[in-house]
Amino acid sequence: MPYPQSYVRAYLESYGGLLGTRVELIEADDEWFVRVVEDDEERTYSFELEPVALAFAESQRLHLKLAAVIRV
Questions:
Q1: Is 26 exposed, middle or buried (0-12, 13-18, 19+ CB in 10 A)?
Q2: pTM, 2 dp
Q3: 3-state SS, residue 12
Q4: 38 to each of 22, 29, 33, 41, 44, how far by Cα in Å?
């Protein structure tokens, strides 16, 4: 069930808005994706294994000095 638009807006605002710097971990179709949003730029990386994706996401989080990786 999709969330109301107000939930999505609140989620984005809690991480600096639509263009806020963040690292997201996403699972879809037995594949893991790490999305890095920084300075109006979005990069997405794909991984077959969750531990590898999580390790990469954590390294990006540390590099960007963020509090947490967002699981979407």
A1: middle
A2: 0.74
A3: helix
A4: 7, 26, 16, 5, 12
Q: Flag the least confident range among 16-20, 21-25, 42-46, 48-52.
A: 16-20
Under DSSP, the state recorded for 57 is: H
Q: Which residues contact 59 (CB under 8 A, 6 or more apart)?
A: none
Residues 6+ apart with CB under 8 A from 61: 23, 68, 69
Q: Are 56 and 64 in contact (CB under 8 A)?
A: no
**First vs last Cα of the chain: how many Å apart?**
14
